[in-house]
Amino acid sequence: MSTYLDPRSPNKHGDYKDCPPLVVRFLYDSETIRGLSPRTVNGYYIDLRTFFRFMKQYRGLSGTKSFEEIPLDDIDIEFIQSITTSEIYEFLHFVTRERENSPSARARKLSSLKGFFKYLCNKMKLLSVNPTDDIDTPAKRKSLPKYLSLEEGISLLKNIQSDFYERDYCILILFLNCGMRLSELVNINVTDLNDDETIRIVGKGNKERLVYLNKACNDALSSLLAARRAMPNLKDKNALFVSQKTGKRISVRRVQQIVERCLQSAGLAGKGYSVHKLRHTAATMMYQHGHVDMLALKEILGHAHVSTTEIYTHLGDSKLKEAAQASPFADVHFEPSKKNGQKDEG
User: Fold this and answer.
1) Which among 17-21, 137-141, 320-324 has the top mean pLDDT?
2) Could you tell me which residue ranges the Core-binding (CB) domain spans (predicted)?
3) Of 122, 124, 204, 222, most Cβ neighbours within 10 A?
């Protein structure tokens, strides 16, 4: 089964039937009861399937099957109850050694396991002990987010080459001004635009937020809506961003291709920039140039916790230079006195 997930597809995911029954129950409850996004649930699915295949292989229960063919339908609650903390450490060692998972990937897998075992303990009351409780999350290397400079952002907007200019320009304007996620932009509907110059965004976990639009955004949206109304083959009448060829809602991959092409036209290809880096750019510009405080930025970006927002509020080199110059000792300078220059003969 393919593990690729298109959040706009009708089914959104497979039926998870290659997982143990209790895992299937956890995945369905995560999406329908907890309201987690299909992409998040799909990540749980992949991680838990890998874990239980490892468990059967580690315990010598896989027979001659290859790893990807190990069946999991026979894993019951007795098997799960017997899983130890030591075995989970063995799994983390396995994905480190055999699969070369980074600390970030290992942290995600452990998060999936913690969520599943917590569900069995607290929700289903099937476990009395959670074997993941005493396992610390692998430390992840913290790096500064990469973002476009103001000059690069302007160059990007000036060098759009497109057969549907109004759409592609609007895409870039919303990314650079509103800092929305790729999935959020793709799923915007015309009905999400409000008369008070705000836009309704549906973020992670189906959480809604209102984002205020500035003049650049409103102008770009007005041009797009006019061009959209003139389309002879418009099929998806509610989708804001549509394909000129099919008239249907544009795909996530198509937006990525549009951004990649625009970056190339602006001479910015090969610098590590991407759609998500435009989100970094929006947040950085608001913080450094607009002096937006962290709590406001948290709401704009749709973060659940301020700690997540802190990665976007990094200080640029100019700020660090200003901080160094602000020290009260910055202008202190003394010449060595004759006395200080003499040798200590004691």
Assistant:
1) 17-21
2) 17-121
3) 204
pTM for the model stands at 0.62
Q: Which of 52-56, 114-118, 154-158, 315-319 has the lowest mean pLDDT?
A: 315-319
pLDDT of residue 133 exceeding 80: yes
Whether residue 273 lies in the annotated active site: no
- CB-based contacts of 189-192 (< 8 A; 24+ apart in sequence): 189/238, 189/239, 189/240, 190/225, 190/237, 190/238, 190/239, 190/240, 191/238, 192/240
Q: Is 8 a catalytic residue?
A: no
Question: What tens digit of pLDDT does each residue of 279-316 get?
Answer: 888 888 877 766 666 666 676 677 666 665 565 555 45
User: Which member of 49, 108, 298, 303 is catalytic?
Assistant: 303
Catalytic residue among 12, 39, 181, 261: 181
Q: Are 205 and 197 in contact (CB under 8 A)?
A: no
Q: What is the pLDDT of residues 151-198, one digit of tens each?
A: 999 999 999 989 999 999 999 999 998 888 899 999 999 999 998 788
Catalytic position from the list 34, 204, 248, 254: 204
**CA 213 to CA 286: how far, in whole Å?**
13
Q: Is 303 among the residues known to form the active site?
A: yes
Q: Does 279 qualify as catalytic in the annotation?
A: yes
Does residue 312 carry a catalytic annotation?
A: yes
- Catalytic residue chosen out of the listed positions 53, 56, 279, 298: 279
